[in-house]
Amino acid sequence: MRPRRHTRQIHVGPVAVGGDAPVTVQSMTTTRTADVDGTLAQIYALAAAGADIVRCTCNEEEAAEGLARIVPRSPVPIVADIHFQYRLALGALEAGVAALRLNPGNIRRPDHIRAVASEARDRGVPIRIGVNGGSLDPDLYERFGGATPEALVASAVHELALFEEVGFRDVKISVKASSVPLMIDAYRLMSETTDHPLHLGVTEAGPPPHGLIKSVAGIGTLLAEGIGDTIRFSLTADPVEEARAGRKLLEVLGLRERKGLDLIACPSCGRAEVDVIRVAREAEAALAERNIPLQVAVMGCVVNGPGEAREADLGIAAGRGKGHLFVRGQVVRVVPEAEMVDALVEEAERITAEGIDARLAAADAGAAAEAAAARAELLALQGTDANDDAGRIARVRDVAG
To answer: Are residues 213 and 344 in the same domain?
Structure first.
């Protein structure tokens, strides 16, 4: 392993990328972004599997509106993936995303690119220049005689120059290709050309196992050479497999610490019934001491918690002074709020000893009904728009319509 190449640091929400920050794992949802509940459930599953950052497509106005609902409820920073329509990038920024991904191959008008960069600059939101060998600008393709490493790097440099015209430098760059040798050579050249952080990936790697092999070959080679600040496995598979594979690669290369416990928690929102940060910290400390190898979720409310984090092995959600303990999304027990952490630890130990199926079979008969009643009570008190989604969507429509 060579020492990591030093890059300038940016922040995708609270997650640092580049500089001396740990290499991060990314993945992308496969749901329609307009399907808010389905997308959030997948985001929570990705976070539980090791994703530090999640990208969602923003390919229509309804997707931009969906982002306005998703962003405040996501446990990890959300990146909007933009293709062709620059106004959707403006809408995504209004929705509150932590970053944008732009493909120079399909947003080609310089004035549109500058408009997005200017708005991102004013909001302090970074952009990834996402060059892809399969969607290279035809002029560059002809000039370089194909999708060569030089052509991919030239595309990124051209886009970067447009950003710099408006004083925007909060950028990370990817130069992906489906050919592993081409991808490796392009990133090596890019690393010699700029000090911006690099996002590594073999695009369109395909299904496992060969998609995993291609990704490990390309990403692992560059990481071993000290190149790369954030990674994504682009697999034809459940994106949870991408996150797990990415996390595991970083662990086996010694770039991320191995952890028995994988605790995820919502970032809190208008529905939170408890101090999620405090409860999450207490739960993490208690569970980490026991080295329990489970995915555990701490959620601020019973309205969204069990559903959004249903892929976690175990979780607890607050609701009307009580903690609703759930296993794989099914509420199994209700305890007083003051006993939430103790109950979580107790249930984690029981799952470790008895297994998940046994704990589901031992669920309290009335727990699900009690959780449903608490959810209905919260909705009656707070309404269906506790996060001011309607206001966000109105602003999205103003700039994206």
So the answer is: no
Statement to judge: residues 288 and 200 lie in one domain? no
401 residues of the chain, pLDDT tens digit each: 999 999 999 999 999 999 999 999 999 999 999 999 999 999 999 999 999 999 999 999 999 999 999 999 999 999 999 988 999 999 999 999 999 999 988 888 999 999 999 999 999 999 999 999 888 888 999 999 999 999 999 999 999 999 999 999 999 999 999 999 999 999 999 999 999 999 999 999 999 999 999 999 999 999 999 999 999 999 999 999 999 999 999 999 999 987 778 888 888 777 677 788 899 999 999 998 887 888 899 988 887 778 888 888 999 988 778 889 999 989 999 999 899 999 999 999 999 999 999 999 999 999 889 888 888 888 888 888 888 889 999 999 999 87
The answer to whether the CB of 166 falls within 8 A of the CB of 118 is yes
Domain enclosing residue 40, as ranges: 10-252
The residue written with tokens 């120059």 in the block is 161
Instruction: For residues 149 and 282, state if they share a domain.
Output: no
274/150 same-domain check? no
Contacts of residue 82, defined as CB under 8 A and 6 or more positions apart, other chains included, come to 58, 88, 89, 92, 100, 101, 102, 103, 107, 116
Hey, CA dihedral for 179, 182, 183, 184, is it positive or negative? Answer: positive
